Amino acid sequence: MTCAPFESNPTMPTYPFVYLASQSPRRKELLAQLGVRYELLLPRPDEDAEALEAELPGEAADAYVVRVCALKAHAARARLIAGGHASAPILVADTTVTIDGLILGKPLHEEDAVAMLERLAGREHEVLTAIAVVDADGTLLEPALSRSAVRFAGADRAALQRYAASGEPLGKAGAYGIQGRAAEFIERIDGSYSGIMGLPLFETAALLRVARVEF
């Protein structure tokens, strides 16, 4: 996605913060790295957030991650309106890992994590992160998609089991976090390190400028 350059216009309102519709501590850290102020806009207990991540039959990974990101953005906008929150842009992101035409989501348990890691070991896979911003008027801006290739070194099952037993893979697409202990398995990357973490900063900054978020 290519965003138009940000141009100052004193007649247009700007926003001192963005709503972040994500519980990910990594996304919080990355927004702070950009100097972006944020307030959390998380799913209510009665919302089935996991249902939004269901795959469609035959769906390609890039189409999947963009679609899920847009669904989460619309859900977050509805949450903002229902909660009577102050008007401001909303930022949503979704990350998935893909290899062999498969989408590797969050592992269900430790053994599921080991199975995913065994598939990745000694091979290259792709990490896709979609970013969506709903501007303060409720318009969903065109989502951005970050693609990165990650090469895992070969690893024996015992090493992967030790990593899975640490608990780190749970809750992470593809059963690993590049910023954590999984770094011992990562031989090289080609793409966006922050995108692999879950929030590509270049694309995020561009979208936030279009939405007139101050930072």
A few lines on this structure:
This is dTTP/UTP pyrophosphatase. The chain is an alpha/beta fold.
Can you walk me through this structure?
GO terms for molecular function: dTTP diphosphatase activity; UTP diphosphatase activity. InterPro entries: ITPase-like_fam (IPR029001), Maf-like (IPR003697). One of its GO terms (biological process) is nucleotide metabolic process. The record marks 26, 95, 179 as: Important for substrate specificity. It catalyses: dTTP + H2O = dTMP + diphosphate + H(+); UTP + H2O = UMP + diphosphate + H(+). The chain has 215 residues and is of the alpha/beta class. The protein has a single domain (18-210), classed as Maf protein (Alpha-Beta Complex), CATH 3.90.950. Helices cover 32% and strands 20% of the residues. It has 6 helices and 7 strands; from the N terminus they run βαβαββαββαβαα. It has helices spanning 25-34, 61-83, 110-120, 157-165, 193-197, 201-210, and strands at residues 18-20, 38-40, 90-99, 102-104, 124-134, 144-152, 186-190. Strands 1, 2, 3, 4, 5, 6 and 7 form a 7-stranded mixed β-sheet that branches. A hairpin with a 2-residue loop joins β3 (90-99) and β4. α3 (110-120) packs across α4 (157-165). It starts with 17 loop residues before the first strand and ends in a 5-residue tail after the last helix.
